[in-house]
């Protein structure tokens, strides 16, 4: 009788533990979104790749946004479309699991799993003038960075002498810049520190202004970085002598609010309510009324006038 009770208690305990661990570490990992990335090898064709993954050429072409001629080159990255009912292959590249202590899957992110990723990319025709520096952020993958810059992960690997696909937040990567405007290049190369500094500048200059006015102040900074009349970095523009009151009175050191951080990110991403303004001022408090009167006024947002 005692043995039966003990066995019963053990069974109940096992069921309880299975329930608890099942809730914390779900066995069904399909909730995690994986992208299967194939790196094109020398001699590959769309037909061979489609046949390998049992999909149609048309679907492979449309899924990756390829041109009608379906041209692919060695080193290109192709995302393999997976049917929802098909389980994602769990035989990951060892590099994907290299840092086991940091490996933590989140269901609200998409993970790129690279297969056949050792293609040799030709970078012989690239010069330093063709490259920009990208600051790796949390959640980045080589595949997504390559897609952003219209290139392939194998080219980024070759340019940076990476031994594998492992990148960390804070790393700086040389990436090719093709058909991107100066504003787009800036948005893709800005660091987290520069975003924080811009948020502090917006906070100091436009803390009491409407949100659109905060974005506008950030846009003026970005417009100056792009202009040949001002320094060519966010930090240099903000810290230029005599340009921003927030620097002179120390408000640049105040902690920015979530709103001003968001405004900074929007300005960096290209939103510009000022239509390329290079200056802003408050006509009720400015000591430079005569000089500002000679500027071409574009728009007034809140208490600030924006001009070129």
Task: State the name of the first-level CATH class of the largest domain.
Answer: Mainly Alpha
- Give the number of helices: 12
Total number of domains: 3
In the CATH hierarchy, what is the architecture of the largest domain at level 2? Orthogonal Bundle
What is the helical fraction, as a range of percent?
25-40%
**Residue-averaged pLDDT, rounded?**
76
What does this structure look like?
With about 300 residues, this protein is of the alpha+beta class. About 40% of the residues lie in helices and about 15% in strands. The chain has a 3-stranded mixed sheet, covered by helices on one side. A 3-stranded antiparallel sheet has the order 6-8-7, covered by helices on one side. A hairpin with a 2-residue loop joins strand 7 and strand 8.
Provide a short characterization of the protein structure:
The chain has about 300 residues and is of the alpha+beta class.
Supply the key terms.
Membrane-bound Lytic Murein Transglycosylase D, Chain A, 12 helices, 308 residues, alpha+beta, Arc Repressor Mutant, subunit A, three-stranded antiparallel beta sheet, 3 domains
């Amino acid at each position: 009788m005692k043995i039966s009770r003990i066995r019963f208690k053990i069974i109940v305990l096992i069921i309880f533990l299975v329930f608890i661990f099942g809730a914390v570490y779900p066995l069904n990992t399909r909730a995690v979104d994986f992208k299967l990335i194939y790196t094109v090898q020398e001699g590959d064709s769309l037909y061979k790749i489609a046949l390998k993954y049992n999909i149609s050429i048309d679907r492979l072409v449309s899924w990756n946004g390829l041109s009608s001629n379906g041209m692919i080159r060695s080193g290109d990255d192709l995302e393999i479309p997976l049917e929802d009912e098909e389980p994602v292959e769990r035989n990951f590249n060892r590099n994907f699991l290299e840092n086991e202590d940091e490996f933590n899957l989140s269901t609200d992110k998409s993970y790129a799993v690279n297969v056949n990723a050792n293609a040799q990319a030709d970078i012989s025709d690239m010069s330093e003038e063709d490259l920009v520096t990208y600051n790796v952020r949390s959640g980045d993958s080589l595949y997504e960075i390559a897609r952003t810059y219209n290139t392939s992960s194998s080219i980024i690997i070759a340019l940076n002498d990476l031994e594998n696909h492992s990148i960390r937040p804070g790393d700086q990567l040389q990436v090719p810049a093709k058909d991107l405007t100066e504003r787009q290049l800036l948005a893709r190369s800005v660091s987290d520190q520069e975003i924080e500094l811009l948020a502090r500048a917006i906070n100091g200059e436009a803390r009491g202004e409407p949100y659109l006015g905060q974005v506008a102040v950030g846009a003026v900074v970005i417009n100056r970085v792009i202009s040949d009349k001002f320094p060519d970095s966010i930090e240099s523009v903000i810290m230029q002598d005599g340009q921003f009151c927030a620097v002179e009175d120390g408000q640049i050191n105040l902690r920015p609010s979530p709103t001003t951080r968001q405004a900074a990110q929007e300005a960096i991403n290209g939103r510009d309510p000022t239509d390329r303004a290079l200056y802003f001022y408050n006509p009720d408090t400015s000591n430079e009324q005569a000089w500002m009167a000679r500027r071409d006024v574009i728009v007034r947002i809140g208490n600030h006038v924006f001009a070129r």
